[in-house]
Automatic annotation (TrEMBL):
Single GO MF annotation: lipopolysaccharide binding
Region ranges (Disordered): 153-181
Family recorded in the similarity comment: Belongs to the LptA family.
Subcellular location: Periplasm
Comp. bias intervals (Basic and acidic residues): 169-181
Pfam families: LptD_N (PF03968)
Protein name: Lipopolysaccharide export system protein LptA
HAMAP family per the UniProt record, alphabetical: LPS_assembly_LptA
Organic solvent tolerance-like N-terminal domain mapped to chain residues: 35-146
Length: 181
């Protein structure tokens, strides 16, 4: 695979690194150009590995990824990068969704396996949407099965946390209840 085709494939898939955990993504973002910047970029053609380091920022529309290091790799016979690993203190993902709500995710390490459609966030992983929060040492999202597993760390004191915020009742629904009284 040529350096340019690997780089283009890696850049195209960078935008999906952390977006995939979201069921209702900002679809318009995927039609926008992908901008990737870092203080350093290294491409190893023999190992099909692209490494971006120091102040890595990826944007595509409302999507924003920040990491200390981002690595994209594929097997020797792969046409495209398949594994993406973002590391940071923490690595961060933000995006505006179709309903204009904002989603934010962070972890020390975020791994995306494109062919398996699997996202794994490790190290104080947190996903926030509105006032709803998922928190654990490890959050695994199987995109194909649409399943999320939140796991605690090894410490006995650690537990996973989920905070659900109920929808506010509509004013029409409240008016009906008041008229019944």
């Amino acid at each position: 695979m040529s350096k340019l085709s690997f780089y283009l494939a890696a850049s195209t898939l960078l935008a999906t690194l952390l977006v995939s955990p979201v069921h209702a993504q900002g679809k318009q973002d995927f039609t926008k150009p992908i901008h990737v910047s870092a203080n350093q970029e290294e491409l190893d053609i023999k190992s099909n590995t692209l490494v971006l380091t120091d102040n890595v920022v990826v944007t595509q529309g409302s999507l924003l990824i920040k990491a200390d290091k981002l690595e994209a790799s594929g097997s020797d016979d792969a046409e495209h990068a398949d594994t993406f690993i973002a590391r940071g203190t923490p690595a961060l993902y933000e995006q505006t969704l179709e309903d204009n709500s904002r989603i934010r995710a962070q972890a020390e390490t975020i791994i995306y396996y494109q062919s398996k459609q699997l996202v794994i966030m490790e190290g104080d992983a947190v996903v926030e949407q509105g006032s709803s929060i998922l928190r654990g040492e490890r959050i695994t999202h199987d995109l194909a099965a649409q399943k999320v597993l939140v796991e605690k760390g090894d410490s006995q004191q650690e537990r996973v946390t989920t905070i659900f915020t109920p929808k506010k009742p509509s004013s029409e629904h409240n008016d009906d209840k008041q008229s019944e009284q």
